[in-house]
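Section 4.2 – Deliverable D4.2 (structural model, holo form)

The reporting period included a commitment to supply a predicted holo structure for the target in complex with S-adenosylmethionine. Inputs used:
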Amino acid sequence: MRSFVLREGRLTAAQARAYQQLWPRYGCDWQPEQRLDMVALFGNDRPVVLEIGFGNGEALLHMAASHPERNYLGLEVHRPGVGHLLMELERAGLDNVRVMREDAAALLAHALPPASLAGVCLFFPDPWPKKRHHKRRIVQPAFIDDLARVLAPGGFLHAATDWAPYADWMLEQLRAAADRFENLSPSGDFVARPEERPLTRFERRGARLGQPARDLLLRRRA
Ligand SMILES: C[S@@+](CC[C@H](N)C(=O)[O-])C[C@H]1O[C@@H](n2cnc3c(N)ncnc32)[C@H](O)[C@@H]1O
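Output (structure tokens):
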């Protein structure tokens, strides 16, 4: 069961050029069952933060520019969004980002070694509001098990959504994993938006529609 429906969308000429010229520099192809080697991927052993479903890469670009001491691995299946990010990475001259166009669920389950990540960001995942589609939501018990496995002890999980029922869904599922995830909210639920997460297009739209974002911040227990 996939958490996305692939609408290919047309690449602009600039995005197509970005793929041709920049994929070798920033992109990473993956063969099913292949284990990723982070040091080989980034050429250094700095801590790696994963962003799942980066959209057009606005938040990823901001985080990577603010944290040159970290590496960022971005996952997205939507080609135009990937093309857009590639162009922006080149423009910003960033070297601490690698990009994969893969299903995050498959990568978490098969490609990422245990305790290989310092953090995971999941910003505005597709909410799948209809009840019969809830099984498509990316946050599911098996996904949380995989996150717990790939996060290093002390690593963070930062999720945000502007769909209140999905926020409650995530909170409930993460409470069920409280043996592995400590919720860093003083009230035991949500936190104010950490500065780390820039306002994205999705969030501004949600706020206009009267759907404020909620942030969840948790730490992988040792
Ligand atoms: C609602 S958009 C939010 C994009 C971005 N995070 C933002 O805040 O603007 C959700 C994104 O997640 C991507 N996505 C959904 N399921 C995914 C998966 N299993 N693996 C990788 N990307 C996924 C979709 O392609 C889509 O671009």
